[in-house]
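Continuing the batch. This is chain 6 of the set; chains 1 through 5 are on the previous pages. Same settings as before, nothing changed between runs. Recording input and output for traceability.
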Amino acid sequence: VQLQASGGGFVQAGGSLRLSCAASKRTTSNNGMGWFRQAPGKERESVAAISWRGGSELYADSVKGRFTISRDIAKNTVYLQMNSLKPEDTAVYYCAASRSPYGSSTAPAYNYWGQGTQVTVSS
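Output for chain 6:
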């Protein structure tokens, strides 16, 4: 499975962006999906995850109520809607796919990673 993340960019604080992650082939109901991010000088951290069958969404405390993960099976695409963005959300965002049917907040649970898309939020 190859993953292509897109939708990053430059936005002012309080603004919104929607990230997309397109898979190269049709994923099965056994693929949990996740979004991670890594800011300069910091470790990669989980942002959100979703079961490929839908539901069972997980969010980092820092993004709850602001970010929403969703997926479109027909389009083989997972989305991350980011609202009320803050400067501390600035990072490279990565999407990932797992062989497990459930989303996870731990990076080792994922077998496939996209190339990352930069999100920059100005104050």
